[in-house]
Amino acid sequence: MVWTEVSKSKDLESVREAVVNLDVNERDERGRTPLMLFITNRMPLEGIKLLLVQNVDLEVRDKLGDTALKKAVKFKQKEVISLLIASGATLQAPEGLATTAWYAARADKGIADLLLDTPGAIRLTLNAAEQQQVESILYEESLNTMCLQISKVSSDVILHAIVNDYNWDDGPEPMLAALTNPVCAPITFMDMFELMEGDYWLAQTEEEIENSCWKRPWREMADQLKVKLELGIERW
Asked: Which domains does the chain have, with CATH numbers?
């Protein structure tokens, strides 16, 4: 009996026998624990529960750097995610927000919102009223009015949604308004820098910026975001 076979069998009797006779924190050649194998091979929840009561290490990482929680996110197993959190799985990552399970889950808002207790995380699923406010601002025809509305947004959740749904080809001005809004969250700064391709603008020379007036606000925004990200790297 080996853990790979047990995980693929999905048989609860095999799991009961394995947790007694095998090392529950064993690692395979890819650094995966039995818990990770159970998640990868979609062991029924009852089988995972039998393993969890054996004091397994929830924080060990495989050679890809994944924890059991990240595996559950990767395979979109909501019940397992909730079970791991209830069992004490750590939501925070020492390397920062961008390496957490929540960050990895952002493409699926429902899954990400299960991990909202992650320090620095923000709610991604909007209610109807919030969605209406976001759309009202983004569909505003007057750029000046849009900028004014964005500057007055009082919810970090709504501001984050605006930034992520904004058509960046429409110019930097509305996003500069978002950047200077006091409720703008650290994760929103991170997303802004990525969405605007901040590294590209930082690589522009002063000569390139001076010879093109439309580039100046993009470069200024990249500079401001870089400062905010560098100041907050330890806190986020």
From this structure: 3-90 (1.25.40.20), 128-232 (no CATH)
